[in-house]
Amino acid sequence: MKKTLIIAVLLPIILITLFVLFALSVPIVNNITAATVLSDIKNIPLPENTEYVEGISAAGKLTGNGNGMQYFGAMLIKTDLSLDELNSYYSDYRENEFRLLVEKQESGEIAVIEHGSLAFESELSQDENYYIVYSWGDGIGLFADLDLRGR
């Protein structure tokens, strides 16, 4: 009888604790997934005469309509190369149309983010050529479905 009472009390406490821990892990796992997208970009060697300035990542509903988590990673680079030269360089590393996209960056604000705001912290000098190299990544299904930031 005493053993049954202990199980009846402890089992719900254990299950609730596991549920809470899982719920708290959802945004953490998705943030780590977005950080991995940035890490993948940073692992590609920079073109000659190019300097890494800073990187940023985000998870959430970042662009487009409808529900769904998106995973974004981007690095800011400074170089004398042209946009065409950078696109040519990174095209050798592209696995799909959402990976290693390159655009001119004239302010800290990241223009491809439509929902909310995301910006680099660095001050961009008008005398230098800055570019953003960014990718969209995939997440883990259950974690993507349960994160409220994707709504």
Average pLDDT metric:
93
The major sheet is characterized as: 4 strands, antiparallel
Decide which structural class fits the backbone: alpha+beta
In terms of DSSP E residues, the strand content is 15-25%
Low-pLDDT regions: none
Shape: elongated
How many domains? The number is 1
> Would you list the SSEs in sequence order as H and E?
HEEHEEH
- Please tally the β strands and state the result: 4
Terminus-to-terminus distance: 47 Å
Instruction: For the largest sheet, list the strands in their spatial order.
Output: 1-2-4-3
Using only CA atoms, what is the Rg? 21 Å
SS field, number of helical segments: 3
Helix content: 25-40%
Task: Give the SSE map.
Layout: H1 2-42, E1 50-60, E2 70-79, H2 83-91, E3 101-104, E4 130-137, H3 141-146
Give a written overview of the molecule:
The relative contact order is 0.21. The chain has one domain. The mean pLDDT is 93. It starts with a helix and ends in a 5-residue tail after the last helix. With 151 residues, the protein is of the alpha+beta class. The protein has helices spanning 2-42, 83-91, 141-146, and strands spanning 50-60, 70-79, 101-104, 130-137. The protein has 3 helices and 4 strands, in the order H-E-E-H-E-E-H. Helices cover 37% and strands 22% of the residues. The longest helix is centred in the first third of the chain and has 41 residues, at 2-42.
Compose a concise summary of this entry:
By secondary structure, this protein is of the alpha+beta class. It contains 3 helices and 4 strands, in the order αββαββα. The chain has a 4-stranded antiparallel sheet.
